[in-house]
Design goal:
There is one protein chain. By secondary structure, this protein is mainly alpha-helical. Helix content is 58%, strand content 4%. It has 13 helices and three strands, in the order H-H-H-H-H-H-H-E-E-E-H-H-H-H-H-H. It is globular, with a radius of gyration of 23 Å.
């Protein structure tokens, strides 16, 4: 019963998406399964910090990344705070348990020259699919939207007159993202093509050959295909284009607060990771250019 009310709380009060709620469900079920194997007499009220630490160790030994382990601990921590607030348990066994340190990795992104070669080249067809794919790649790079935000777009979310897109971000938070003339021309051309095929100015922005909303997996495939035309790096995802957008903005003197708003980050500390990327570029340039470096 506790878990059901907790999941209702996440979806109804915290406005979490169904995907996020299911992630919490999987994490809590994994912990419950673990402590039951340790001792079938244990319950949510009687597990202690040692059990939580043993679970953490077992996950690390199973090869799970520090990020995954910390995410699962975070889900458990959120659950126990919920139970404590309602006085359904007396102690929080996760309190004082520190997760493993994550190895910091810099965002992977494409060079501006690579993006210019892709967007200015003859890699896209002139039919509906080609125009759609060209627009998708451009939109990721020009606006920095997330994959789920792009596939969730409807035609009415695009304001051609105001040159802005209404994006439904994480936790259903909406934000307004501007776009320039170049993307505007691609949007206009694509929408005219779509109207001639579909005969309506409403519904999903991006559709497949059957007229259904384009699925995330399909967008990942097409982005990977086109990025492979200009780069040999292994990571070639929509998120790489989001990183490329952010890095390009900072390289051209955008301020962190503005970039935070464009990306839909909760905190500017999340956005600061891109400053490390641009600093790495600066160091590389220095090492190559300075005679005493």
């Amino acid at each position: 019963m506790w878990k059901k009310t907790f999941f209702d709380y996440l979806s109804l009060e915290r406005n979490y998406s169904s995907r996020t709620t299911e992630g919490y469900r999987d994490d809590l079920n994994a912990f419950e399964s673990f402590y039951k194997k340790v001792d079938s007499a244990l319950s949510w009220e009687t597990v202690d910090g040692d059990i939580v630490r043993d679970w953490m160790v077992s996950m690390m030994e199973a090869g799970l990344t520090a990020s995954t382990v910390n995410r699962r601990l975070s889900a458990l921590r959120t659950f126990y705070r919920y139970l404590l607030k309602r006085e359904w348990v007396e102690i929080d066994p996760v309190r004082g348990v520190r997760g493993p340190k994550k190895k910091k990795s810099l965002p992977v992104f494409l060079k501006e020259s690579e993006m210019d070669r892709l967007l200015d080249g003859d890699f896209f067809g002139n039919d509906f699919k080609g125009k759609r794919d060209r627009l998708i790649v451009n939109m990721f790079y020009v606006t920095g939207v997330r994959l789920s935000e792009l596939t969730g777009l409807d035609v009415h979310d695009v304001d051609m007159a105001g040159c802005v897109i209404r994006v439904n971000g994480k936790r259903n938070k909406q934000r307004i993202v501007p776009f320039g003339d170049e993307l505007g021309l691609l949007l206009e051309d694509f929408l005219n093509e779509m109207y001639s095929l579909r005969g309506a100015d409403r519904g999903p922005m991006f559709i497949d050959e059957k007229g259904d909303r384009l699925k995330d997996v399909k967008v990942r495939e097409l982005v990977r295909h086109y990025l492979g035309m200009v780069t040999t790096q292994k990571k070639r995802s929509p998120h790489v284009l989001r990183h490329t957008f952010a890095t390009s903005m900072l390289n051209h003197h955008a301020d962190l607060e503005s970039l935070k708003e464009l990306l839909g980050h909760e905190s500017v500390s999340t956005t600061e990771i891109y400053t490390h990327t641009t600093f790495e570029d600066l160091k590389e340039m220095y090492n190559h250019a300075h005679p005493r470096a």
